[in-house]
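Batch 3, record 17
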Amino acid sequence: MRLWLVMLPQALLVGAMAGCADFEHQRTVRRAVADYYMGAYPQAIARLGPLAGDPDANFVLNNVRLGSAALAFYDLDEAETAFLRAYEVLNSFGVNNGGRTLGAILVSESIKVWRGEPFEQAMAHFYLGLVYYMRQDYQNARAAFENALFKLRDYADEGSSNTKGDDRYREQESDFAVALVMLGKCWQRIGREDLARANFDRARQLRPALADLVDYRRNLESNVLLVVDYGYGPQKVTTFDGAIVGFAPKPPEAGPIHPPRIRVDGKAVDLGAAACPPVDLLALAQDRRWQSIDTIRAIKSAVGTGLIAAGAYQGMRRHGDGTAALILLGAGLLLKATSQADMRQWEMLPRTTFLIPLRVAPGNRDIVVEFGGHESYVQTWRGLPVGARGETTFYMRMARYLSGEYTWPPPPVAQSAP
Amino acid sequence: MPRHQDNLAIRNQESAISNRPCVALCWVLALLLAGCTSAVQSGQSTLLEGDDLIRVTDDMAAKIAGSPDVQEAIRRQGPLRVVVQPAENHMRAEVLPTGAREAFTARIRTLLAKQARGQFVWLMNRQEFYDIRRRELEAKDPTLDLGPSPDRVEPQYMLTARFYSMTQENWQARSTTYLCVFELTDLQQRTKLWTDKYEIKKAAAKGFLE
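Prediction for the assembled complex:
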């Protein structure tokens, strides 16, 4: 009994210290996310940089967060490093073997190294590919986009012979046609017309609405590619007393995605049907698969509820055993407390990523990207350098407080210019 | 046995029983702490790693140096003037960042420079040459002429590497087979003086909760 008296305060102290560190970490992340959505990218990078170097359970998550901020700031070196670090862990298996798995089952799911949902993994690979595409390193870009599609193949059940699995993969691949389009564009730039056409055809076959966007000629002639991240991605929510996790809002709740309007040097560009959103992450998040850990949490929660009820009954009985009631209540509360879902998520994700290939006269151009609808976002980019040959890619993050005027070059580009 | 010893034994037994949950908790905590390695320490992947770099380049450097065709060319022409290019990524779903791309051929250059001293003259590739000149000289004087094109140095041979892979991933595992092809090409004759390959097969199984 004496040992308990010694152990208990120590355990409480360790728990309290861990809790304080976690609270500090969460506060830094919240500030970084707020900075990101206010357009204060250097501040977000400064906050996330030290966290991203710490190989703890949030290693991948902090690196993808850092990658998002660095990409929006056009710090492509930092973005590449961050997404590559995430890529290495996302493509490793068994990172949670041993203590982390046991901890996730017994104590809290957040002990696990965060690897994200399949759509988050796919987006991490997509952004890594985008960084390479912006640098015109098309072979690495192609490999990263291909890997983005692999991450969704997880959804296919036990083998390709399984029709249900094939259908599910096809559905996922269709929802993530954005990677197929970029894969096609990479092959086109590498000079493999056959593979470029094959990927464009696959995207068209899966999503007929993308027919204009994947037009071979349009992409071949394009010398500017605008990659526009629009709106807010899915948010993790819990139901059933915090044990069951889901994503909100659903696409109908968030309303339709409005197509962008583009003006180059004041002249409107007719995008036709090419301004079709190639992905809706709100829809993709709704396909979240029920996992083993969800079952474990649900069982713990249900058993916890049962124990609390039994404890309450025992306590209220006329000749009930008070000690037994307390033990039952304590055990029930402990199970309830450890059955809470892991709420970590990549907060910077957009609702969709528009790909807009344009043919623009070479020189320095002013490009305005505008979205209508219930929330109107407008960004004006001054002096974007457009070449006569090749395709220059510009990334734009559109959200509520990010409207305004941006002048090229952003500081990291200006510093790295020869 | 005296009575006080009996009591002591009973107390010890009771104490042991009452400490059992504590010991169990300590074991669980110890297991948790021992098992919680960092996110980058544990895990198994099918990506190319530092060990692969060493194995591949050791093997290829030995094969270049030991090739009868290469030795015959050295005997005829004297030290071979070789320009080294970074590896090309033709892999299906594996990224090969700039540093790794350069490392695969740069290490062969370093190994041969040590092991086959005097048999090769190593020339910088065009990109590397201009990058260094720009960084070292242009920063001091932006109007400085960057000098003769590296083409005028006329390398005779080019060492290249091309990496291919086949990757499969499903809900249980991921497997990748790599084919790394190295070539020493005669730039004037457009013939391959030497070519060889290295194959690597890797597989990683997904664990519980992955």
